[in-house]
Amino acid sequence: MSALRFSDTISATLTDGVLVVTIDNPPVNALSADVRAGLMAALDHAEKDGAIVAVILTGPGNIFIGGADIKEFGKPPVEPLLPQVIARIEDFSKPVTAAINGAALGGGLEVALACHKRYAAPSAKIGLPEVKLGIVPGAGGTQRLPRLIGAAAAIDLIANGRIVSAGHAHKLGIIDSLIENSLIDAAIAAAKSAVDLPLRRTGKLPVPEDSKEPIDKADADALRKARGQHAPAEAVRLVRLAATSSLGEGLAEERRIFVKLRDSEEAAALRHVFFAERTAGKVDGLEKVAPRKIETVGIVGTGLMGSGIAAAALNAGYRVVGIEQTHEAADKGRDRITGILDKAVQSGRLDMAGRDDRLGRLVVAADAQELAQADLVIEAVFDDLTVKTELFQRLDRIVRADAILATNTSYLDPNAIAAATAHPERIVGLHFFSPANIMRLLEVVNCEKTAPDVLASALAFSKRLGKLPIVCGVTEGFIGNRIFSAYRREAEFMIEDGALPHEIDAALEAYGFPMGLFAVYDMAGLEIAWARRKRQAATRDPAARYVTIADRLCEAGRFGQKAGRGWYSYPDGKRTVDPEVTALIEAARAEKSIVPNSFTADEIVTRLLKAMADEGEALLAEGIAARAGDIDLVMINGYGFPSHKGGPMFAAARR
Ligand code: 3H9
Question: 218 CB less than 6 Å from ligand 1?
Fold first, then answer.
């Protein structure tokens, strides 16, 4: 066995006439210019060397190829382009096998699709997630995948950007064989025994004939989820094209659309989101701080929020101790958590063994002393400062000296809670979003006295939960609710200034929000915010602009969807513009002598984006948020902001 090198990132060994080419381009083996050039050089070598009978492509560790190098997008293209490398692989005169050791994503799967055989380790992940970056596969994915697995299955994978296990990909027909152990040895043996067999070139295969219904269904499902994004619709069109045109025509059209989308605003926004997600949760100076070991998580309060947190922690493999005040409440809490797990079983996301394993790690008790074993205790009790401070003072006496205490408060001041305890350095905020077992967003609140290793532990915990942690400082409502308040305030000002609720909602929904702001209010119910406004009335700045319309709606019993009336009315459950609300708004304007203006949808969106971005700038200036990208992620993952617009900070800056 002799070692060969073709570029900085491409090396190879020769074993019994089989050239095993290894791509090694950390961190994700992206198809950079050096990788592409190295692959071409390796193929040149294999072509010329008569002793080489077959080629295997593989990667080190748990990544085969993570895709095209996204950092190269927007820079002048460098030859050889990926489609050229892929055409060379497919047309190669000797058999080329992909030995898929780990993730084969985007361009990585496109390389594999052009190989004549695909073997994979069962742990590998397979997919064409390009639509998540606002683009379509640009190196043959839309043309070769349907030739292997049919149009309906290809639409489902490509237009949804779905990533599947190697086992699933094997069932679909993407992977020829799953290899449990010694993937490379198995691939070498198979390559040697198949040298004289004809090569199966994916691009030469006809697209298998699917009946029309599954294709139409996959098409409709994908477009419904796309919420106005362009890439999924283009992906569907390109897959359909594969069935009716030659490979060359299909590839040319795919390339044209790929380039167009790559240079679009939508793709720029989604790339921003991609990189913001990778940066989120990173805190300067914290890389070297070791987190504390967390295995047992205590959760005080097992209501809606607490039971969701418990389910998330059980899913991540933690032991969970839930605490309630009475045995009866503890039983109910256990039932709620069990109910969440049962729902996961019903929907096929969890099997019975997984459910039972989780329940085996759960204790729900009425005795707070059980928390003595916890490494981390999260409180999810009623959001009242006295209730929470008393609880934390009690916890101080129960938990171990090295245990971490976290508050899930949404609006209270965690510094005040911490100040009331004996060890404020072990207090951190973990602001979950409901339902906590589903929502990815988690605001990790770095309080004034939080110790660095406590913050590092909270981040490690949230990552193990599979959450997207955003670190923020202490302010009322943290990042999300502060921006949301500014957004809501501006929308209500606009109502006074002349826009109607349905006009604002229509503008927001056309922009990409799943639901307009006033429809969301109605769904959530108006009475809790009304009660808060009444509490705050005495301390409100009388000079500040205050819109009374929401109060008037509540006074008229219009508490939202459940009451059948709110900002809208709901005859037969259908959201309907109500002239009574319009009259009430007009009366409120007249009272303040406001002459209403009319607003276009674009003006509405611009004004709301500006309000959010201004508040975001204030959060950055105050040091509450570390990065504009963090603010964008909070609004996308917690408040329905469309990801393909990049978040309010990104979008406002591009207007
Ligand atoms: C494509 O392929 C287009 C083609 O169809 C056509 C071309 C003509 N490029 O996620 P991690 C960075 S489009 C450049 O934390 P993990 C990332 O920013 C692509 N950089 O790792 C981070 O940097 P830093 C289709 C990339 O182990 C570091 O790598 N492919 C790329 O948790 C580690 O990332 C995809 O969409 C990239 N492609 O997960 C797959 N990917 O350290 C995108 C990552 O500076 N990637 N980086 O913060 C992933 O899904 C995950 O990264 C992966 C590894 C599962 C691979």
Answer: no
Residue 30: is it exposed, middle or buried by C-beta count within 10 angstroms (0-12/13-18/19+)?
buried
Helix (H, G, I), strand (E, B) or coil at 536: helix
Span from the CA of 105 to the centroid of ligand 1 (angstroms): 9
The two structure tokens encoding residue 138: 């640009």
How large is the average pLDDT for residues 630-634? 98
Tell me the CA–centroid distance for residue 146 and ligand 1, in Å. Answer: 24
Reply yes or no on whether the pLDDT at 222 is more than 90.
Answer: no
For the chain, the average pLDDT equals: 96
For the chain, list the domains and their CATH numbers: 2-263 (3.90.226.10), 296-472 (3.40.50.720), 480-623+625-654 (1.10.1040.50)
Q: State which ligand 1 atom lies nearest to the alpha carbon of 141.
A: 5
**Which residues are identified as catalytic?**
110, 130
DSSP string of 418-461, one letter each residue: HHTSS-GGGEEEEEE-SSTTT--EEEEE--TT--HHHHHHHHHH
- Ligand 1: which atom is nearest the Cα of residue 136? 5
pTM above 0.90, yes or no: yes
| Amino acid identity for residue 372 in this structure | A
Helix, strand, or coil (residue 21): strand
Q: Is 33 in the pocket of ligand 1 (CB under 6 A)?
A: no
Residue 82 has pLDDT above 80, yes or no: yes
Is the pLDDT at 1 greater than 80? The verdict is no
Ligand 1 atom with minimal separation from the 282 CA? 48
